[in-house]
Design brief:
This protein has 192 residues and is mainly alpha-helical. It is built from nine helices and no strands. Helix 1 packs across helix 4, helix 4 (51-74) packs parallel to helix 7 and helix 8 runs antiparallel to helix 9. The longest helix has 27 residues, at 118-144. The radius of gyration is 19 Å and the shape is elongated.
Length: 192
Amino acid sequence: MGRTKEFDPDVALRAAMELFWRRGYEATSMQDLVDHLGIGRASIYATFGSKHELYLSALDRYCESMDGTALAALSKPGPALPAVREVMRSFAESALADEERKGCMVTNTAVECLPRDRQAARRVDASHDAVETALTGALIRAQNQGELAEDRDPRAIARFLVTFLQGLQVIARTGHDRRLTDALDQALALLG
């Protein structure tokens, strides 16, 4: 009879996500994971697979959490443009409040692992696509409700905002808070 797990895989995955988010994939060794999670190497391999598989699972968890919050805010009934503005502000406020300056795990993955890691690239693309689709939907609603001018292209604006939000996460890591807040003000002004 096999031994029962002496740890909660969900808690371990969250701890791994936090470590990878803070340090990145390459800078996190398997020994770092063993030490941080308090779980033996064999248990990590048996539960999560390789370090790379654990990283991808951690990235999935991050995307579920972070993208889900934005998607929920953008799909609420009522005026759509204020919801878009609030999502933009919340991304910036979260970045500014992070004393560790971790940035966004999706952005960090794109910078560190792409284009060589196709599995990570698929996850980055899926995250960007999900946020872009939600923003596009909200901007179409805003247009239909008269909040956004008819001559504006909701998809193009959504693509700009996704690109802007990813850049915002990079700037947040530099500690140039004023640069970030000034850029946010300009991005919000584009919405009218």
